[in-house]
Amino acid sequence: MTILDGKKTAADIKEEIALEVAELKSRENIVPHLAAIIVGHDGASITYVNAKVKACERVGFESSLIRLPENTTEKELLNEIEILNIDNDIDGFIVQLPLPEHINEQKIIMAIDPDKDVDGFHPTNVGKMALNLPTFISATPFGILELLDRYKVETSGKHVVVIGRSHIVGSPMSILLSQKRKVGNATVTITHSRTKNLKEITLQADIIIAALGIPEFLKADMVKDNVTVIDVGITRVADSNKKSGYRLLGDVAFDEVSKKAAFITPVPGGVGPMTIAMLLKNTLLACHRNN
Ligand code: GUN
Description:
Structural class: alpha/beta
Largest sheet: 6 strands, parallel
Bound molecules: guanine
């Protein structure tokens, strides 16, 4: 069994980006600039955004964090987005999700200039992704493709079962892995809460992408030997033994499933760190396009 070490792979990628940034800086005096908007005080979201900003600093990017109060109106947020859209100094930006209930998420995503949408959430970019055209691929699916690539996990002709149909992970993952691309050419089954006989389907999988958000959902009796398992889940579960008061659980019962797996991602330290590295990669891509 091989652990797909997202923490180490992300560190490798960030090192590669840092080298490229240093070269860009010395040769052309260009510094990539990522901005992030966060609305409200959701603990997990603040942790994620801070990690993104810190990662920018580590690779030599410029970063801007725009913190807005919970009661920010949709109009005020749209104004902030417009400021970033027209600011030539900003290569790309993200609006951290989820947003407070009174703000229409889709309307916000639609307002982002697709050329600055390094999250790859704008319908224009989702459409390009679905057509296998050059675009920003969302950080989580992009990170999974990169992890499979770097560990040389064969996907061509394999049966991939995706559990979960979210716009951020399940849906794009199923599209990307079925495409004619380096990490792709798989036969993909997408499953969700209405799927019948899920276990029958997962038992046929060469590769399983678990992205449903139910802690330790995938058990050993649901997978065949030598399966590759990608665990996208990160649920905070109360744990008084931890300083933070919680621990992170994936969608996979790691201890039992890892005994049957050929490759498996841990939680934490698997897909999570990869997403930040790929966001930086998208920002670098945006910067190249802008110059
Ligand atoms: N919330 C959870 N994941 C993400 C992400 O990748 N991008 C943004 N903007 N918000 C998120």
